[in-house]
Design brief:
The protein is mainly beta. It has helices spanning 25-28, 235-238; strands at 43-47, 49-54, 67-72, 81-86, 94-102, 114-126, 134-143, 151-157, 166-172, 177-185, 191-196, 211-214, 223-231, 251-259.
Length: 266
C-alpha cells in the first residue's frame, strides 16, 4: 500500500513500506506498525486501547489496501492511548504534515467530550517552570459541541502567559473521511496553519487556512516527535456507559506524510 508510508523530513522517503501493497489488508499490512515489524513508524502504543489494520484505505480517489483502525477502551483511565509515533524529526523549525481520518463514529459528541488525534512535540518543555509546562508544540483533537458536527480543535503552544501559554483555534468537522494538512513554524513569529480537504496548497495564505494561529513559540526547540492516533481523551469520552470507547467508536487513520518545506495536498 502506497499510503500511510512515513516520509523522512529530508527529501528522501524513509525507505520503509507502509502497511503493504496487495489487496488483502490482513495479508499485506504489517502489524504492529513499528519498524521492527516491517512498518513505517518508530513506535506504537496501545494502552487501554486497540490498534488494528482495517480495510480499505481512506484516500479519496484510489483507496489503498488498508488503514490504521484505533479505539480506546470504554471505562479507560486518562493514560489510554492507541497511537503510533515518528521520532525521525530533529528539532525541526518548519514541519509540514498531512493525514487522512475517518470520524464517522464520532458524531453527536456532547459538550466537554474530546479526544486528541495528532501531536507534534519538542524535545524540551516550556515554560521553564509551572503547571503550563509542555513539550507539545501543536495538538489536534475532535471536540463535541452538542451537535452532529463536532469541531476540529488546534491547540498551539505560544508564549502568552495570560492564556496559560495556549492559543486555540477551531473549525467544524463533519462526520466522515477528511484529509488534514498542517504547517507548524517555530520562531518569535511562529505560526500553525491547518487546512481541511484542500487538494492543492500553494502557500500559507493560499488557500486561506481554516485555522490560523500565530504567536512566539521560540521557547520550544522545534518538532522532535510526531504522534498520530487517539489519546488524551476527556472523562466523558472514556466513560464506561454512554461514552465513545470500544470498537463501535473506531477511528480510521491513513496516508500520513511529513516534510520540512513543501506542501503536500491530497
Amino acid at each position: 500500500m502506497k499510503s500511510f508510508q512515513m516520509k523522512a523530513l529530508a527529501l528522501a522517503v524513509l525507505g520503509l513500506a507502509g502497511f503493504g501493497f496487495a489487496s488483502s489488508a490482513f495479508a499485506t499490512c504489517p502489524f504492529p506498525y513499528d519498524q521492527a515489524h516491517g512498518g513505517a513508524w518508530s513506535a506504537q502504543l496501545a494502552n487501554q486501547g486497540s490498534l488494528a489494520a482495517g480495510s480499505p484505505g481512506l484516500e479519496i480517489a484510489t483507496p489503498s489496501a488498508c488503514k490504521m483502525a484505533a479505539f480506546l477502551n470504554s471505562g479507560s483511565d486518562p493514560t489510554a492511548t492507541a497511537a503510533v509515533a515518528d521520532t525521525s524529526p530533529t528539532n525541526e523549525a518548519s514541519y509540514h504534515f498531512r493525514f487522512y481520518i475517518d470520524t464517522s463514529t464520532l458524531t453527536n459528541l456532547p459538550n466537554l467530550t474530546s479526544v486528541q488525534i495528532f501531536a507534534a512535540n519538542s524535545a524540551n518543555t516550556f515554560p521553564l517552570s509551572g503547571n503550563a509546562q509542555t513539550a507539545a508544540m501543536l495538538r489536534l483533537g475532535i471536540a463535541g459541541n452538542g451537535t452532529a458536527t463536532p469541531n476540529l480543535v488546534a491547540v498551539y503552544s505560544c508564549n502568552v502567559p495570560a492564556q496559560n501559554y495556549v492559543c486555540l483555534g477551531t473549525t467544524p468537522l463533519t462526520a466522515g473521511v477528511h484529509w488534514i494538512e498542517g504547517h507548524l513554524s517555530k520562531g518569535v513569529s511562529g505560526f500553525a496553519n491547518i487546512w481541511v480537504d484542500k487538494a492543492s496548497i500553494a502557500s500559507d495564505s493560499s488557500p486561506t487556512p481554516q485555522i490560523a494561529l500565530t504567536g512566539d513559540n521560540s521557547g520550544w526547540n522545534g518538532v522532535d516527535l510526531a504522534a498520530l492516533g487517539l489519546g488524551g481523551a476527556s472523562p466523558n469520552f472514556r466513560k464506561a456507559s454512554g461514552g465513545f470507547g470500544g470498537a463501535t467508536h473506531t477511528v480510521g487513520f491513513d496516508a500520513f506524510d511529513s516534510r520540512r518545506q513543501t506542501f503536500i495536498g491530497q
